[in-house]
Amino acid sequence: MLTLGIESSCDETAAAVVDGSKILSSLVATQHDVHERFGGVVPELASRRHMENIAPLVCGALEKAGVKLSDIGGVAATFAPGLVGSLLVGLSAAKGIAYAQNIPFIGVNHLEGHLNAAALESGEIPLPYIGLVVSGGHTSLYLVSGFGKYSLLGATRDDAAGEAFDKVAKLLELGYPGGPAIDKVSSKGNPKAFRFSKPNFHDDDTLDFSFSGVKTAVLLLHRDEAKKGKVGEKFTVDCAASFQNFVVNFLTERTIAAAKRHHAKAVVISGGVAANKKLREKIAEAAKDAGIPSYVPSMHLCTDNAAMIAYVGGRYLESGRRDALTLNAVANLEIG
Ligand code: KG4
Ligand code: ZN
User: Fold this and answer.
1) Per residue in 198-232, pLDDT tens?
2) Do residues 182 and 168 lie in contact, with contact meaning Cβ atoms separated by under 8 Å?
3) Whose CA is closest to atom 22 on ligand 1?
């Protein structure tokens, strides 16, 4: 069955057509030009840009896939979590198409999309596996024991890793979005120039994360260096590299600890931060050392896209699940 997927949870409008796990088309329209000067996503502007982009993107995805709307067997759209005004644009478009074409509709949780992105390229992943979803809004570890069977093992207690990347990049005046900017300049810096300490949770067993501490540490370091007149290019690249090193090590350590504790057969990472070069290398290395395979999706499947939504939606539709056209958008909704 051909599934049309629509994603509009944050600042990316995306549409895709998949046939099972085969991607026939996957288009993404970023809005970086809109939000860049604010240093973060402005919800109202995001919704308005989604409105402009949604129809051309859906038409473009159908055209690129070489199919007509009448060939589509079902429509899937992200309904949670995200910015409600943004979610509503994609969700309403999907419902309209389903109603007009008289085909089934299903809402997909964005996190479930990320968690299954690797399967689009790698097919079946050995079960159970540990999935790390690390993005601008989430940093969560799951034990995945089957499709739709997720247990949340740990999550950030404050900022998401991507949010920390964006805020540190803003402070270092590296531009927006911050993750790719830090990733790029870090190769020129010394990752050991500054040491940041891990949060103390008073609970040795926890698989939770916290990134507000390192964010504040970077802020204080920047302030002190600025007082000494030492904030120049060297400081910026060393600080970026040291911050990235801290985040990558923290994410990797927790992921591998979870894999060992739950005797996982594989490790999967996904979400925008999973596009980070160092994280991709480090996870692959650490998983190899632990004797388990790692699955790291291609960059375009790590960041927000509609192929992952179409894939997950398609699997549920194939199993007979459907949602009513009254399904609402939800800002916060965990899985597992
Ligand atoms: O999954 P995503 O596209 O959207 C959300 O669901 O949040 O993730 C966006 C986040 C942003 O915070 C962005 O700075 C971060 O992913 N990101 C990166 C990289 N590419 C995107 N962080 C670190 N390194 C990257 N290469
Ligand atoms: Zn995302």
Assistant:
1) 998 888 799 999 999 999 999 999 999 999 998 89
2) yes
3) 179
